[in-house]
Design a protein that fits this description.
about 260 residues, Rossmann fold, 6-stranded parallel sheet, 9 helices, LHPP/HDHD2, HAD-SF_hydro_IIA, metal-binding, Haloacid dehalogenase-like hydrolase domain-containing protein 2, hydrolase activity
């Protein structure tokens, strides 16, 4: 094993508070000179904001080490110059799309959807639906397909269920820019310049992190923090590795279990 992909929320921090042992593990990764990226489905913070948060928590990083759905969507938009899109995303990343935004039903070539949380309502969802049905060519761009996220109050629906509603109503399949899309993991591998068989994905979401990575040939490690639930280990689909928290990653690595994987 040569490189690591780290999920952030639920793995490195929870509710912007460092998970116990995360800073020490990340410092160990640096000292071992292990190439790594932070891959996150967050649409409530920009790449720069995520970088600043990690720095404030004592986790060394550069913005280039952080891959978000907004970053991959910008790359996609560069391949489709001149297109206008209706943008349903949190205010924190809305500026990323200032040059392409249009809510004119006839002008927008599609919609970009992120996690609006409590700001979702019938009017907003129906507006996105109307734009999608203007033409057979309109596209539904999803900034991730996470089913839910966790905070101190419990589990909350993420963007995935709302995107599924738009898919069902419009008859269109979403172009997913974040996890669990294989294109997201492929972009991460390109940035690492690493072969999938030599990369480990560490996440708290069995399906969107671990199994999605496995489907790309990447090894997966599930942590028992964040949105992890005990039933994640009782189903037919299982993670290759499971550890209590990010604190235990160096032990897993040093004990040789990962070095024997190919």
């Amino acid at each position: 094993m040569q490189a690591i992909l780290f999920d952030l929320e639920g793995v490195i921090y929870q509710q912007k508070k460092l998970i116990d042992g995360a800073a020490e593990t990340m410092e160990w990764v640096r000292k071992q000179h292990i190439p790594h990226l932070f891959v996150t489905n967050t649409t409530t913070m920009s790449q720069q904001q995520v970088s600043a948060l990690l720095t404030s928590l004592g986790v060394y990083n550069t913005p280039e080490q952080i891959l978000t759905p907004a970053v991959t969507t910008r790359d996609w938009l560069q391949q489709h110059p001149g297109q206008k899109m209706a943008v349903f995303v949190p205010d924190a990343i809305r500026h990323e799309f200032d040059d392409v935004v249009s809510f004119n039903d006839s002008e927008a070539a599609g919609v970009i959807v992120g996690d609006l949380g409590a700001n979702w309502n019938y009017f907003t969802l129906n507006h996105a639906f109307r734009i999608l049905t203007q033409s057979p060519e309109t596209v539904l761009v999803a900034l991730g397909m996470s089913r839910y996220h966790a905070d101190d109050a419990g589990l909350h629906m993420d963007a995935g269920p709302f995107i599924k509603a738009l898919e069902f109503a419009s008859g269109k399949s979403a172009l997913v820019m974040g996890k669990p899309a294989s294109s997201f993991f492929q972009e991460a591998l390109q940035k690492l310049n690493a072969d999938a068989s030599q990369v480990l994905m560490v996440g708290d979401d069995l399906m969107a992190d671990v199994i999605a990575a496995k489907n790309c040939g990447i090894h997966g490690c599930l942590v028992r923090t964040g949105k992890y639930q005990s039933q994640d280990e009782r189903g037919v689909i299982k993670a290759e590795f499971v550890i209590d928290s990010i604190r235990d990653l160096p032990t897993l690595w040093v004990e040789g279990q990962l070095s024997q994987v190919s």
